Amino acid sequence: MKAMVLYATGTPLREAEMPEPRVAEGEVLLTVRACAVCRTDLHVVDGELPDPKLPLIAGHEIVGTVAATGNGVERFRVGDRVGVPWLGWTCGVCAFCRSGRENLCDRAQFTGYQRDGGYAEMVVADQRFAFSIPAVYPDAEASPLLCAGLIGYRALRMAGDAMRLGIYGFGAAAHIIAQVARFEGRQVFAFVRPGDDAAAAFAREFGAVWAGSSEEMPPEPLDAALIFAPVGGLVPAALRATAKGGTVVCAGIHMTDIPTFPYRLLWEERIVRSVANLTRRDGEEFLALAPKAGVKTTIETFPLGEANTALASLRGGKLRGAAVLVP
Ligand SMILES: [Zn+2]
Ligand SMILES: [Zn+2]
Prior knowledge:
Elements: E1 2-6, E2 14-17, E3 27-36, H1 39-45, E4 56-57, E5 62-69, E6 81-84, E7 87-89, E8 109-110, E9 122-126, E10 131-132, H2 139-142, H3 148-158, E11 164-168, H4 172-183, E12 187-192, H5 197-205, E13 210-213, E14 222-227, H6 234-241, E15 242-250, E16 271-274, H7 280-292, E17 299-303, H8 307-315, E18 322-326
Parallel strand pairs: 11-12, 11-14, 12-13, 14-15, 15-16, 17-18
Antiparallel strand pairs: 1-2, 1-4, 3-5, 3-9, 3-18, 5-6, 6-10, 7-8
């Protein structure tokens, strides 16, 4: 099968002919229909995350069709459409797994990081960590739901019942979560790179009541802020824009260093927290909610062989919504 393979971090992916993966017990073999490109893929390729499997097939927002099933697979049949997210496997026995926090499992394996992912024609997945995809979404449109949507949803839940919601960085995750937030009756305030008028217009299209530069203060204080951009300087900026008792949620897996800031920005019971990975429950909840909330995804498709171009577009901030690779 054809795949785009990372042989060493800091180098471009190389197109390669790889052996078709074989299913083990409890696994499904999928024909990949679409795989969205996540900022985490950039962090893996750039070597900003420690110890990826090498060589590695990246990609963890996979929509595919079941081509074969291993022994013991009872959730899916050949021909079913299945989504594969970042969380690829957990131990089920550590203290985190046993307390409903499998996202923090001590021995978790992640798709497109410790397990081969979806920048390929075929992929295998543990059936227990795969999802059914709502029928209303075509394959490519569904793929960004699997991380941008899912992790965005977990970040939104960490914001509690905040009505005035700030979103820093208006890319794939933000454009999905802004729609969910509006559906829930919240007001979205979008913060974009200074001078990025296209991103501000994109945010308004998706229902932001206000869109401006991340260096500006919003017209009213925020009840919570979600930071999707990997920029540590946004943490004090978001705290400054947040009301007493508000929460700032860092939703990315990697961020540049957070600069020092005066304690008064945190004072008055403001909270800074991160969100790591997802649980299967997040996935089930979000994939049930997305069609009800009328969530639509904006995508730009690339042939599988152009994965490096897709990554470069994401790096350069040139995308509206999400890049999706189609084998
Ligand atoms: Zn565990
Ligand atoms: Zn991701």
